[in-house]
Amino acid sequence: MIGTLIRRETLDNLMTFRFAAAVFIMLLLVVANTFVLITDYERRLASHNEAVKMHQRQLQEKITYSAGAVRVDRPPNPLSIFNVGFDKRLGNEVRISHGSVPSLWDANMHESANPFMDMFASMDIVFIFEVILSLLALIFAYNAFAGEYESGTLRLVLTHAIGRGEILVAKYISAMLCLIVPLLMSLLLATILLTTSASISLNNNDFLRIGGIIFTSIAYLSVFYLIGLLISAATRRTSTALMSSMFIWGFLVLVYPNVILTVTPRPEAPDALRTSAFNQIESIWDTFDRERKHYLATDDFPGEDWGYELKGWGSRGAYFLDNARTLSYTYRSTMDFEGFGEEDEPKMPHAQKHFGFLGAQTIDAADRTWLIRKPTLEEIFIQPANMERIWLKLSPVGLYDAATQAWAGTDLLGIRDFFHDARQYRQSVISYFYDNKVFESRQWFSGDKGAADWSGLPQFSFQRDDININAKRAIPDVCLLLMINVVLFIIIFLIFVKSEV
Amino acid sequence: MIWHITKRELYDNLNSLRFALTTVLLLGLMLTNAVMHLREHPKQLQNYRDTVVRHENRLESSAADSLYKLAEQGPGRLPKKPSPLRFCAEGGETFLPDNVEGGFGRWGMDDLESFWILAYPPITPNLRNISPDVIKVDWGFIIGYVLSLVALLFTFDAISGERERGTLRLMLANSVPRHTALIGKLLGTLISITIPFALSVLLNLLVISTANDVHLSTEAWGRLGIIFLIALLYMCLFLALGLLVSARVQRSAVSLVILLLVWVVFVVSMPNTLASIVGGLSSPMSSDEFYERSWQLKRESEAEFFSRWFEEPKDSTKRIELGGAYVAKDAEAQQRLHEELLKQQISQMSRVRAVIRISPVTIVQHLLESFAGTGFERHLQFLENVQSYAQQYRTFIADTDQADPESLHIYGIRKGMSQKPVSPEAIPKFEDTLDLSKDFNTAATELALLTLFVVVLLSGAYLAFVRVEV
User: Which of A301, A406, B59, B100 is the most exposed place for a label (fewest CB within 10 A)?
Assistant: First the structure.
């Protein structure tokens, strides 16, 4: 019996204008936007490759270790086509130096695009689904019960020996079958387009991630279909059901995500915390500076000049860099000399010993700074943002967005992985420096006897996390979506069972 | 007769669920908008005032030193005046810089210092912003998205619904011309949406005008009136669209599906997609290329300067002249480069803005921006103001230098210019202005385009309704 019902319902849905329109519009929008997004991704990738090359070149040009700035770049994520998240927004280039531990707040943006163009939001595929899938689901659902009440067919069906639960299940399954068709078709087309592009290479894990996105999309679709069914069962009149579902759609999709953050009290970052952390950091560097001066005053070489009065030619500079807002603090000393006089040679061992001491001290101070900085940054930046995200997740749209971002790896955690890798890379650079005695070497400040050798430096490559980690981040939100589904289904069942026909 | 139909429509609508929901939705949104504006506007004003004070202090301290100092340091950061009507149209202001940098030291050596130039630093507000991405709820959003959707929800069954119920036949049985019936319906729905919209606008303005920090002038009220009328015109566009589809289609459910899909395509998807497509057609200079060229220019003029400088005897006037010429030439070349980059960026943006006007929501947002004094066109106006001020400032320096008999009149170097302090009152100060007449000019095309859309859709609706078989 239930088979017959499903067949009838499916046929009913398939033959409608709304189904044809749904398929057409989804394909049109998804294909058009995928083209645009792929071009955009290719442009960003080219810009990234350019940046990597440029940074390599700039590094190779430096003849001393102290003048070289090692920079690492974050490649664009190919799955940002599905949900762009933070991929285009947050910094994608960070400097690796022994004097500071890199974090999200030290990064820069390397981009070739016109800054004015940032005004336009990018329409990723998930955004299209967010808007259109929910709309279609409601359009399919609004007359599921209300229409049958009105036309009296429900009474007819119920005269047969069939449970109400079965009718509900049949309606749900058949409508979902029809709704999944345009979803899968458009995603399939998008994936085909992705694989035809030469610059995008997707591996097995990426296909699993796309699978995760598809599953989440289906859960999202089902939530809106059930919302529509609920309204339809509760109102019993098609016109009322239609109006209510449209306004609920407008509220959930259009209004709530944009309004909620301005309405809720903005969690202000405690200024006292920031100031006290900054003071602690400042005192670390004060101690560092005192020790540095103490060393210069007490070492075997007379005078307190950190450059040891070397008379070569080139540039030198030493300064503290700090930013109280992002709690960054560092000491940079660069000396980029070539060609020394005869009288400089006896000074060399002293200078080398000093730079060896300074390097170790700077690393130590930077590491201690990070110990204070990390929890404070967490508290003043990450936690307020997480609060805001929780508010957004009160709507299924927010849940869907968060889950797909996690699958695609463009969420905040995914971006922070890059900085985590950058920190590890800094460690390996430092151990390379220690192993090769770079700080004590003559090449640290002078290029006259052979330039700095950058070729031995460990290579940086950022690998996106394993699919398991993406899944772990996405699962809570997906589960919440599924739970909403179950709750809605139970409520509809209760209403439907109790209703009089 | 027309009034009779209008009245009937009005009563029908006033009792309906959609009317109640619309009222609640619009009131809530407008209230949010007002609260947000009250929270943010004082900060923007304070920021503007601080920058103005810094600008004036900088001029004063330079003037107290010497004319040379004024010529070298420049006027400093020049702020953009925030519009009091920013709550009407945010216009992407978050992505537009609120100042132009007029003077920062680029280089310096023995007795030469780089001269100021106008630089246009880009802003990347999102670089460290880890909050979720949201659209600002301004009037542009409320009118452009919400009001258009509401207009469609009010009209999708205007004709098809009556046909389904059979009341259309009844109405046309009277001696009512069809166009009268159509206009009556249009007016009825227009009025019934205008009521909650006007209410929410009033509430919004009430909240905003009661606050002490925000002061709306008479001119601002005039602009608000125009914005309200534009919103009505825009609403007519969607009402006409709704009537057109409703007249052509047999069933109201189908009519709604078509209307919603048209709405999604034209309002939600089209502006951004078209912007990416058109933006991709041209690519302005990248920041790396820019820095490279800037560096190249600097190196070239430096090399040329030194090669000639060493040939001249020490302490000769020739050396002073060479130094001055070097500084002036460097500033001019860098200024040209900055302007070139800006021009390329602006032309790309203008092209994009011209094309995305196919979408009615963009038209109305552009219109709102130009009357609210925000957005890209306003930014261009600000840049123009800044550039004409820079001209004025340079002329002032040249004239004052000419007036000093002790000066050697060699621009660009301390020894060659007037070293006397300047009276701070005499220096031109920068003040950003908002000009309404210019706004009308930029808005005229868009207003015409919007009216054209409305007329076309209305006549379409008329033709469709005339041919309807009841």
Answer: A301
- Model pLDDT for residues A455-480, shown as the tens digit of each residue: 888 888 888 878 899 999 999 999 99
Residues 183-242 of A with CB under 8 A from B: 238-240, 242
| pLDDT (0 to 100) of residue B160 | 87
- Within-domain flag for B348: no
**B133–A89 C-beta distance less than 8 A:** yes
Specify the DSSP element, H or E, that contains B109.
Answer: strand B108-109
- A324 belongs to a structural domain: no
> Would an 8 Å CB–CB cutoff place A254 in contact with chain B?
yes
The verdict on residue A212 lying in a domain is yes
A262 and B261 in contact by Cβ < 8 A?
Answer: no
Report residue B281 as tokens: 């057609």
User: What range does the domain containing B432 cover?
Assistant: 1-278+356-390+423-470
- For chain B, positions 116-145, list CB contacts with chain A under 8 A: 122-124, 126-137, 141, 145
Closest Cβ–Cβ partner in B128, B257, B283 for A21: B257
CB within 8 Å: B276 and A120: yes
Calculate the alpha carbon distances from A109 to A73, A95, A106, A457, B358 in Å: 9, 12, 10, 24, 32
The residue range of the domain holding A149 is 2-40+124-263+476-498
- Taking the CA of residue B460 and the nearest CA in chain A, the distance in Å comes to 22
Opening angle at CA B463, ends B459 and B464, nearest 5? 115
What is the number of domains present in chain B? 1
Q: Is the pTM of this model over 0.80?
A: yes
Is residue A267 within 8 A of residue A178, CB to CB? The reply is no
| Alpha carbon separation from A208 to A79, A407, A467, A476, B446 (Å, rounded) | 11, 9, 7, 17, 47
pLDDT in tens, B51-105: 999 999 999 998 888 888 888 888 888 999 888 888 998 888 888 888 898 887 7
Cβ distance A115 to B36 less than 8 Å, yes or no, reads no
CB B275 within 8 A of CB B348: no
- Residue A378 in domain: no
- Give the burial class of A321: count Cβ atoms within 10 A of its Cβ; 0-12 exposed, 13-18 middle, 19 or more buried: exposed
CB contact under 8 A, B128 and A90: yes
End-to-end CA separation in angstroms for chain B: 20
Residue A256 lies in a domain: yes
User: Does residue B218 belong to any structural domain of this protein?
Assistant: yes
The ipTM of this complex is 0.88
Number of domains in chain A: 1
The answer to the question of residue B261 being in a domain is: yes
Cβ contacts from A onto B, under 8 A: 179
* B261 inside 8 A of chain A by CB: yes
